[in-house]
Amino acid sequence: MTVGELLNNRRVALNKTAIVLAREIGYDYPNYIYMMESGTSQIPLERMPQLVQALGFTKMERVEFLKKVLQEQRPRLYKIFKEAFGINNVKTRKVVTVRRKK
Known about the structure:
Number of helices: 7
Low-confidence stretches: 89-102
InterPro entries: Cro/C1-type_HTH, Lambda_DNA-bd_dom_sf
Largest sheet: none
Organism: marine sediment metagenome
Helix content: 55-70%
GO molecular function: DNA binding
Oligomer: single chain
Number of domains: 1
Shape: globular
Mean pLDDT: 87
CATH topology: 434 Repressor (Amino-terminal Domain)
CATH class: Mainly Alpha
Distance between the termini: 37 Å
Order of helices and strands: HHHHHHH
Structural class: mainly alpha
Radius of gyration: 15 Å
CATH architecture: Orthogonal Bundle
Number of strands: 0
Protein name: HTH cro/C1-type domain-containing protein
């Protein structure tokens, strides 16, 4: 499933129109929502906080959504994050889990 399909499915599941979602993330018109859903426009990272909030993503869903956006739309940036922060690195996950327990 593409980022656009995921975005559309989530919006529809929440019974939100494109105009409502557009206004919730700071746009006046729904055109940009349709463009993001169709894949003709990238999801702007600066709108990501408003978007995941409007779509009601949990913290884990937010991380997975951002990861998917970066993989699909900004692969060079995803590669940098992956190399720098060990995304998908089992040892990193264990360290994060241990630190949370303290």
